[in-house]
Design the sequence.
């Protein structure tokens, strides 16, 4: 189900994203995710750009009805490390008077860990993998729910349901990829179906 952002955010055409201290190891991945999204958004006229913010959101302020500025729209945080967990979670905070309208979103992701081979210690997956995971959750933060996930098939994009696995590059962690069916990400692709959902929700 699509969830609409509040009028103020939709009119601005900007979704501000704050990453807290837990996400310090994700800053490059998050920056890349924003850039990829914004480049696609510009050419596909999605109506929303992702903007870096240094202001922690007050997740309850607008729900209480405060009109004062309440920080970034989206809170991005990391919940520790995990093997075989290739999914984050994006929760919406609604306006108390209009429960169907989103006023804040919170993204929580685990840092994915991989085994790089015998005799080599486990390590974090590369930034390309993290970028894809972050981009997936940022698309949820645009108001797309699980029902909008891209169905299985040849046209898989970064907004497909659950990813299958991480393909580890034993030499360059930067070349790790995340796998869905026969497709590997990055590159971070968004298919027409996903683009249409975002554009519709930001019209
Ligand atoms: Zn998802």
Sequence:
């Amino acid at each position: 189900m699509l969830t609409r952002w509040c009028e103020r955010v939709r009119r601005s055409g900007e979704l501000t994203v704050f990453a807290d201290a837990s996400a310090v190891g994700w800053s490059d991945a998050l920056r890349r995710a924003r850039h990829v999204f914004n480049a696609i958004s510009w050419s596909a006229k999605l109506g929303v750009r992702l903007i870096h913010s240094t202001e922690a959101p007050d997740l309850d302020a607008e729900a209480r009805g405060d009109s004062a500025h309440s920080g970034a729209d989206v809170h991005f945080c990391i919940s520790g490390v995990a093997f075989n967990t290739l999914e984050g979670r994006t929760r919406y905070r609604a306006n108390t008077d209009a429960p169907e309208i989103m006023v804040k979103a919170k993204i929580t992701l685990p840092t994915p860990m991989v085994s790089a081979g015998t005799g080599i210690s486990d390590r974090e997956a590369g930034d390309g993998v993290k970028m894809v995971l972050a981009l997936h959750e940022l698309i949820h933060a645009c108001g797309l729910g699980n029902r909008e996930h891209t169905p299985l098939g040849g046209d898989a994009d970064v907004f497909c349901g659950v990813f299958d696995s991480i393909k580890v590059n034993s030499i360059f962690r930067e070349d790790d990829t995340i796998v869905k069916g026969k497709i590997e990400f990055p590159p971070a692709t968004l298919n027409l179906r996903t683009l249409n959902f975002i554009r519709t929700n930001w019209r």
Summary: Residues 4-201 form a domain with the Collagenase (Catalytic Domain) fold (CATH 3.40.390.10). Strands lie at 4-5, 14-19, 49-53, 74-83, 89-95, 98-114, 123-124, 165-167, 177-180, 183-185. The CA atoms of residues 50 and 182 lie 29 Å apart.
